[in-house]
Predict the structure.
Amino acid sequence: MTSPTPSLIACPDCDLLQREPDLVSQGCADCVRCGAELFRCKPHSIDYTLAFLASAAIVFIYANAFPLMEMDASGLRSSTTLMGTVTGLQQTGETTIALLVFATAILIPAIELAAMGYMLVPLRLGRIPPGLRFAFRLVRWVRHFAMVEVFVVGALVAYVRLNDTAPVTVEPAFYALGLFVFLLAAMDATFEPHAVWHCVRDLQRELRYA
């Protein structure tokens, strides 16, 4: 019986093809030519990422379903949701800003959550989802445009300024949006792309010898 071919990995910076080293827990593999990081050994990366992903999805849905803030102007109360903010900007003629808020604070985070779930849930169940490479590339692409934290900071600035003219109450949905930012960062920190392909390789090997 022939021995298995050693796993190879390409450097993301210089494209050098090299053998994949065995790492200890939390170890890091660097390119032998340019020193760029190839991957890290994060035990249970998929499990931890899925846990943060599920939590992030729950708070994201909550943040979109309920009002973020409520303002009381001389007895006249008004509140708005995240989507209501987009609609309000569009109605005042700020269509470009409305589209920007919708894309960066609603659409792109939703795409990232959906694509991550599409990748990781089947892998955790022992199946390789069709279109995995596309979903993987999609996640890497949308991460550059998700800017929920910028919206949260802008909303805090608006809260401080509006509170000088009329009482403004921060609703639980706004705290959920802030929590979503931290959960998204935790999900990105625990996610290791190399673990995905390592899992795929193991599943393919099991199918080959089944």
In short: The helical segments are 45-65, 82-91, 95-124, 132-142, 148-162, 172-190, 193-209.
